[in-house]
Sequence to fold (1046 residues):
Amino acid sequence: MGVEGIGARVVRKEDKRFITGKGRYVDDIKLLGMTHAHFIRSPHAHAKVKGIDSSAALKMPGVVAVLTGQQIVDDKVGNLICGWAITSKDGSPMKMGAWPAMAPETVRFVGQAVAVVIADSKNLARDAAEAVVVNYEELPAVADMQAAIKAGAPQLHPEAPGNQVYDWVIGDEGATDAAFAKAANVVKLDVTNNRLAPNAMEPRAAIADYDAAEEHFTLYTTSQNPHVARLVLSAFYNIAPEHKLRVIAPDVGGGFGSKIFIYPEEMVALWASKKIGRPVKWTGDRTEAFLTDAHGRDHVTHAEMAFDANNKITGLKVKTYANFGAYMSLFSSSVPTYLYATLLSGQYNIPAIHAEVVGVYTNTTPVDAYRGAGRPEASYLIERLMETAARQLKVDPAQLRRTNFITQFPHQTPVIMAYDTGDFNASLDAAMKAIDYAGFPARKAKAKADGKLRGIGVSCYIEACGIAPSKAVGSLGAGVGLWESAEVRVNPVGTIEILTGSHSHGQGHETTFCQLVAERLGVPISQVSIVHGDTDKVQFGMGTYGSRSAAVGLTAILKAMEKMESKAKKIAAHALEASEADIVIENGEFKVTGTDKAIALPMVALAAYTAHNLPDGMEPGLKESAFYDPTNFTFPAGTYICELEVDPGTGKTSFVDFVAADDFGRLINPMIVEGQVHGGLVQGIGQALLEHAIYDANGQPVTASFMDYAMPRADDVPSFNLSHTTTLCPGNPLGIKGCGEAGAIGASAAVINAITDAIGKNNLEMPATPDRVWRTIHAA
Amino acid sequence: MYQTTYHRASSVDEAASLFAKGSESKFLAGGQTLLPVMKQRLASPSDVIDLGKIKELQGVELSGDTLIIKAATIYYDIMTNADVKKAIPAISYLTSVLGDPAVRYRGTIGGSIANNDPAADFPAALLALGATVKTNKRSISAEDFFQGLFTTALEDGEIITAVSFPVPAKAGYEKMRHPASRFALTGVFVAQSKSGEVRVAATGASQSGVMRVPAIEAALKANWSPAAIDGVTISANGLLADIHGTAEYRANLIKVMAQRAVAAAR
Fold:
């Protein structure tokens, strides 16, 4: 490893612009003649739109247009799609309710747009929006999914009787029933996985610019995957053919999944820009973020685990209800199915698993992938079950896990996934040592003497990342492949541009991706730049989510680098009159091994572009591209242990220690990895203790501002004690597994296991607010 | 935000006269409530009169047994003031747990009590300490000043100039912070005056705003100690209930926070 190569703690290149306020976000962009959009959103969770009177608004100063849902439908802009087809157990396809970008007839959640005002300024648009009169006929609404599936509940979509999206199953029901019939012990648990609002720091925004002469659109948008946005806008929403639509995702301030999806506001901005002949900008505010960014989680689950007399797990049965909100968002269908139930084996040998997932429509904001996406729900369930089992079976929770760990790899689980490698004992050992697990009983006794209830909670998570092998996901219903592309351009002076289909919205790609180049060529990272987020620059890409950028995106860069290096070696060998096989690359030079003959990279590059003296038949230039499609998911795993104290008087939780022992395979930049783990852990702790997107029975959001929705702050979380136990991923040449989601996947179970240990009661829902913990302590 | 006309007053008299000229004037102190409400278009004052730069509304004075905090003094300056720490350290502590650093650098004592949010911290301190609110027109006892949710004795256009606190023998404040807003989910201020009078005020708990807690006052009058409150029962009737705390929980918090405030009282 060089000072800037793989494994080096290189300071992030991009932070200079971010921390000096020089980032360029969508809202920073101003175009000549730009107009501003303000959406008129339903205040009702369920209503008929009987009429929209915009006559007064159209007379107001600076108002360019008021456009409605009926107009966008009339203009044949396509309904929003869900890109992953799921089939119910009876063989029927999932039931998609039609979702136009603005509602022409029926609104189904608070915040759904019915019209948009376009004006010369944001404030004028807002003023005019108040003059638009929308006549609604309120309909009965249902926000709770258990209520939604009952007979007689208000119905959302004619396409989906009983508000059911699908009833999907996985695993061998017969084998699972047989395991339960023979079980020595059965452990049962009901858990709720609370709904979360993502709250990226930068709200969503879009600018659409239609060029009538070229019949060409440019869309600036807060996207994690601009190429996918272009594909969907082009192929499904009838905006424009791909070569007439450029999508740019410049600096993006966090996504956590919520910016994967193509939202109605981008569609409306594009459509409106063509209609009015001027650029249209929309920047969401925080209220709109709460109301319209796809939410995360929201499961209710009953699970049972069967054990034999030796405390070995013999079977697992799971029934989950998943709330999809009012419409099926872009990848929502896959989250509680293939991203959730396929991880139900956890880190354990479980011979038989059967899971059933019922998807439900409710009059709430649509739910889709949010950091972890299905895997946090699976990990939380399994790790709460393991803790519950240890208490019921009266064995040490760490030992119960050890008894059931998978230790032979590869390991085929009964729920599709084939784990390639791992060492679960190593991470458990590291975490137990870091927190002094053996010394806990003494610490608990001391805390008790001080009037505090101390608890310890273990969580051994596993996730499927590096999303994903295209053939495999295609066979499971995905509408896209999940490979990644890269291009390496060596300029004539030897500087290097890496074009990637991955998208950085906080992850630090501009640094880590350069580190691979530094590692291979021995050039400083200052000579390398990363180009991403623009469909005119990068040919194609699938974007960033599912902890895929290093495992998939960086591997694509490696493949392109190898091609480029191969050609450069030929040029160097030709110039040095040596054999190509004898050329090695060191410190930015191509050397003839065992001699002092060398030619520097800039000279090789220059030779490639002057083309005065290239090997016979070689094309000029030094630019190569590659597509990389992984052969399997990657399987990051680890152990988190949380030690905390509960104040019995108030129910308030205070952290004592939090240790994380992760196996992410090879680390490119350990400092950035630590940042990713810190952020993920905070999100997991936020879910466990603070965050909950709540609706009242009529579908009115109760938590649509930071005054009510509790985001974790620095003083809500402890300092984290991180370590790594590494097994290299055999599935990609760099041995990378991915680190972006782990913290959010593993943390919440550790926290709840610790609180329930502290208070001596097993049933406690998230978020474990002080009120809820206090009531649980004092419940009869 | 709707259009408004901003005025920066340089004296209390000028502020009062500017207020009278506007059709729907509002005074702006630290802006920690008014500005977010205006941004959400839930308030549309014709004129905003900024009191924040008026010199006579700034600062802290300690003379004998009276601590005077001028109305536009920001929380941070109250928190770090040596006279406050010496005379009534519980007030210094209260400001240290009020909101977050951004709020503490902008928010003012006058703005807090004029708004009288049912979960604000300062109303509890005023009520428990038997403070007097000074305005440009009169003096009002804390007891008379706070009149329920977001309601005070202030007349239209009346400006708070200072709060006068009698220095107590002992006082303490403890608060369970609202996890999202950092207001008081429930906060209790306990004080024993130099003449031996005991007053206990709770904020964030009651549907009617800041309130005295007579049962705890009686227990502490008999025996100033946390244990004295052990036997007290607080009814959940009339208490606030929301997603962050049931009425029963708040009833419990009144008792627990009072005990801890007594333990911390100096």
About this structure: DSSP finds eleven helices and twelve strands in chain B. The radius of gyration of chain B is 18 Å.
